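Late entry, evening session. Most of the bench is empty. Finally got around to the prediction I had been postponing all week. Sequence below, unchanged from the version circulated by S.P.
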Amino acid sequence: MTAVEPDEVADTAPPAIRVGAPTERRNPRSVDLDLMSTRDVLTVINEADRRVPAAVAAVLDQIATTVDLAVAALRAGRRVHYFGAGTSGRLGVLDVAELAPTFNSPRHWFCAHLAGGTDAMWRAVENVEDDDRGGAAEAAECVDAGDVVVGLAASGRTPYVLGALAAARAKGASTVLLCANPEAEAARSVDVFIGVDTGPEVVTGSTRMKAGTAQKLVLNTFSTAVMVRLGRVYSNLMIDMVATNAKLRGRMISILMEATGCSEEISRRALHEADGDLKTALVSLVSGAGVTAARAALARSAHHVRDALALLAS
């Protein structure tokens, strides 16, 4: 066997980068994690998780700015994109997948881009997160001026994400970086920076934990607020949901009863007369107008229930 010199190993080894993000630091409260009882391990994780909501609360102003950007973009016929890798990217896919059934939002409004494509949802795809050119090429192909592009990267330095953000900005899109590193250098190169300070993970570097939880909370908060601003919610009720099964059809009846104070019989009849359109039935019951007038008012008000009710009341 031929001996391999150290310099040859260095020349052939894949590149290694040491990341200085807070998520890569050791958590002093979990140093002896492997020596703890099962109950103590769970306690340490649970106590660490309690920090996440407070960390998200500290960046609500930045999330609000992002919501306003997204609402303006969607009203102008543009789109919102998520670009991410690994856990961050999968959380973006999950958020987008849940919007259509919950709010009946057009599927082109939100687009999720995951490094490595569909296969990466189910298994780790090696090296794709380091492909800044791949992220840039994907963004250049699908992002348009006026879109909003949200980069998801726990460390704040994922090359695939930063490449996508740079290409999106060059095309005239608004750019946002969501990460768990308040010190990320990329903060200076985006329009909105959301650096959630979740600190070191219980298992060092495992950003599927607190960092992932924070991203899930921020994405839920962001996309839900966007839908509220776009009139997809009346009071705190889902009024644009898609009734694809018996449970959801029953929920429509319950929503009408809650929103209007009408009986189940009246609510069922109104929904039937509206051909299953919950918004039309709701506007009809609240305003006292017929189904045809309710449908016309919704069309004139971009399907915003309160605006349609104001039209019928004037």
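Two things to note before I forget:
The chain has a mean pLDDT of 92.
The beta strands are 80-84, 110-114, 148-152, 174-179, 192-195, 233-234, 237-238.
Will write this up properly tomorrow.
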